[in-house]
Structure to design on (468 residues):
């Protein structure tokens, strides 16, 4: 299935347009697949549900036309009232009553999500499809529609994981080519996304998946992921371990691995649901690849200046600079070509119309048009709110920690062992400034532990050793 929820409106640089809407399939409003967010007032027509539970309500018809490739499609759809919404897909009009494509029809319980066709459904080139959107009452919908063919749908296109959280979604992904369901602690695979990283120091490495929000069909919107770790090459992967977890935050830990080991990660949503989320690593390299160095973004008075280096051994011929307003859906804002005499050179690109809050990444193409993606840099032009946690690396009986934050709030606090066992879980109330806490760990067995603090989409994970 294809929907996701809890996504901010994309491409805030563009104005929002108020448009009249289609009251029937025959006069459906056309959606442009250009990534621009537009506002649409719902029609005055009423109709019953075709998939989701609920009473009869307001019906509005839309249509979109695929390109000649055809690329897949994803739409960020939200109702500001937060009421349940149904999106039914049709391949043609027949008096407005033809049968919907049920596998590609979704239920947004909270009135927001990413819609896309079912993972096994193939869109035809240069073809028009219909969407029948049912809302609980008359409202104004925000729809951001665009072509979307994911890079990390298979192992070869895996996205790099670093210590910086990267927002992603698996709305257009297929069911895990090259891996088996049991290797992800799953019974089936429907919407698998691939990632990779290199281990920084010999030991275990950790994956944090946060802000998980999933949608599917009626009554089947389970938040959670099934995760598998692998080594080897994409054509011949060796499974290491797997885990699964439900809720808005899932953490997975590898066995002990040597420094510099390349790890492939495959994740799959519960019960065929597609999800939005952020993903980051602990004890992983922070640089995107050995070829790309010092990728930074500097803020001037009116622009953001991106810069990076390529090593002498790089294999790239073209670079695409991409930007996102919601840190999930990225679009191109420029290209650079690389000539043979630019080895080990410093590259730069200036975004003359920066967003107040935005994210950047670099997409690299080699001579065979194979793609590699850099890590994502998140930029806020407004003042950022910092947070951090400090404590001793070696602890005997009492863990003393200091949490520094600029805002009042509650933090989820838990300590886990390297086997995933939770030894302590609670909440900590923090005030602006430095907050001091102590936790009794005297009964913990000797060994290495992971301390995690989480508040909404902010997560910190650090390790410490319990000694006798």
């Amino acid at each position: 299935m294809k929907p996701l929820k809890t996504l901010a409106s994309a491409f805030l640089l563009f104005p929002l347009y108020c448009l009249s809407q289609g009251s029937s399939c025959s006069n459906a409003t056309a959606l442009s697949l250009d990534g621009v967010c537009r506002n649409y007032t719902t029609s005055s027509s009423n109709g019953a549900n075709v998939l989701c539970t609920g009473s009869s309500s307001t019906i509005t018809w839309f249509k979109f036309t695929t390109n000649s490739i055809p690329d897949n499609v994803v739409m960020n759809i939200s109702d500001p009232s937060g009421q349940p919404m149904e999106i039914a897909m049709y391949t043609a009009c027949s008096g407005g009553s033809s049968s919907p494509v049920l596998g590609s029809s979704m239920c947004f319980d909270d009135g927001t999500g990413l819609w896309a066709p079912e993972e096994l459904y193939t869109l035809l080139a240069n073809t028009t499809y219909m969407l029948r959107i049912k809302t609980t009452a008359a409202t104004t919908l925000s729809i951001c529609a665009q072509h979307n063919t994911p890079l990390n749908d298979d192992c070869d296109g895996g996205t790099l994981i670093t210590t910086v959280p990267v927002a992603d979604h698996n709305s257009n992904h297929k069911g895990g080519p090259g891996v088996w369901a049991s290797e992800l602690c799953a019974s089936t695979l429907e919407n698998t996304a691939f990632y990779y990283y290199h281990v920084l120091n010999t030991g275990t490495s950790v994956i944090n998946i946060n802000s998980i929000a999933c949608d599917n069909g009626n009554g089947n919107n389970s938040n959670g992921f099934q995760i598998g770790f692998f080594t080897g090459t994409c054509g011949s992967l060796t499974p290491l371990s797997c885990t699964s977890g439900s809720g808005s935050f899932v953490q997975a830990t590898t066995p002990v691995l040597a420094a510099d080991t390349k790890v492939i990660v495959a994740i799959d949503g519960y019960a065929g649901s597609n999800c939005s989320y952020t993903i980051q690593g602990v004890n992983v390299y922070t640089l995107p690849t050995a070829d790309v160095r010092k990728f930074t973004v500097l803020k001037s008075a009116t622009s953001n200046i991106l810069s990076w280096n390529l090593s002498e051994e790089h294999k790239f011929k073209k670079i695409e600079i991409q930007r996102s307003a919601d840190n999930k859906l990225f679009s191109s804002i420029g290209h650079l070509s690389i000539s043979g005499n630019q080895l080990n050179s410093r590259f730069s690109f200036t975004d003359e119309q920066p967003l107040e809050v935005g994210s950047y990444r670099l997409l690299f193409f080699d001579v065979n048009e194979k793609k590699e993606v850099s890590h994502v840099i998140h930029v806020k032009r407004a003042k950022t709110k910092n947070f951090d946690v400090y404590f001793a690396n070696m602890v005997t009986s009492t863990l003393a920690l200091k949490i520094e934050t600029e805002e009042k709030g509650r933090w989820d606090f838990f300590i886990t062992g390297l086997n995933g066992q939770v030894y302590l879980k609670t909440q900590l109330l923090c005030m602006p400034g430095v907050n001091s806490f102590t936790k009794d760990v005297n009964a913990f067995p000797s060994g290495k532990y992971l301390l995690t603090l989480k508040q909404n989409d902010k997560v910190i994970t650090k390790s410490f050793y319990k000694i006798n």
Remarks:
- The longest strand covers residues 236-246.
- The chain has no helices and 36 strands.
- The mean pLDDT is 83.
- Residues 77 and 388 are 34 Å apart (CA to CA).
